[in-house]
Design brief:
77 residues, single chain, 0% strand, mainly alpha
Amino acid sequence: METIRLEFQPNIKAKILELLSSFSSDELKIVSERPTFEDEKRMLQSRIDKINDGTAVYSTFEELDVLLEKTISKYED
């Protein structure tokens, strides 16, 4: 199956659902978006913007290793 995202005015929702209901469940499945989709989209766009404008902060493998060790030790035992 393929997935598309639709954006529409609330006043045409009933018409869209009426049209979609003419398809069988084998042909069409309505999947709701996660409630956090727009927040996640904004956060990811912000990170992309920082990468593109050169203001992103990167970590070395050594710094990442130290961070991971601290996190793991915090939850051990």
